[in-house]
Amino acid sequence: QVQLVESGGGLVQAGGSLRLSCVFSGSTFRSYAMGWFRQAPGKERAFVAAISRSGGSTYYADSVKGRFTISRDNAKNTLYLQMNNLKPEDTAVYYCAADLRALPSTIRSGYDMDYWGKGTLVTVSS
User: Fold this and answer.
1) Is residue 106 classed as helix, strand or coil in its secondary structure?
2) What whole-number distance in Å separates Cα of residue 84 and Cα of residue 105?
3) Distance CA 91, CA 101 (A)
4) How far is 35 from 79, CA to CA, in rounded Å?
5) Complete DSSP assignment for 27-45
6) Fewer Cβ atoms within 10 A, N terminus or C terminus of the chain?
7) Contact 22/116 with Cβ under 8 angstroms?
8) Which residues contact 69 (CB under 8 A, 6 or more apart)?
9) Is residue 94 a contact partner of residue 122, using CB atoms and an 8 Å limit?
10) Phi then psi dihedrals of residue 61, to 5 deg
11) Residue 116's closest CA among 93, 98, 100?
């Protein structure tokens, strides 16, 4: 059974940085397209970024483009999200997700990924 465990969330001031990690277990990590999503209080869960199985292709929501970087280490079974120049509107619970068949270019908000982590909270103060 695939398990995803996120870490790295916390409280940061606007303009600061955080790096989220997601450790994958229970299957072959490199076989899965991976994504980060977030859910702010009172809002629907939204797409943040996605990455191909090799890590060679990445995709971002317009709201984070140029500030966030998704990456993966297939040797360590770990997905990352480097978040720079954080804004109060980035405050949310961040989830990593895995999908065996997805084309990462098609992953968007509402995409029914195969597996989800439980999330890690990021709070950005102004």
Assistant:
1) helix
2) 23
3) 30
4) 9
5) S-GGGSEEEEEEE-TTS--
6) N
7) no
8) 58, 80, 81, 82, 84
9) yes
10) -70, 150
11) 98
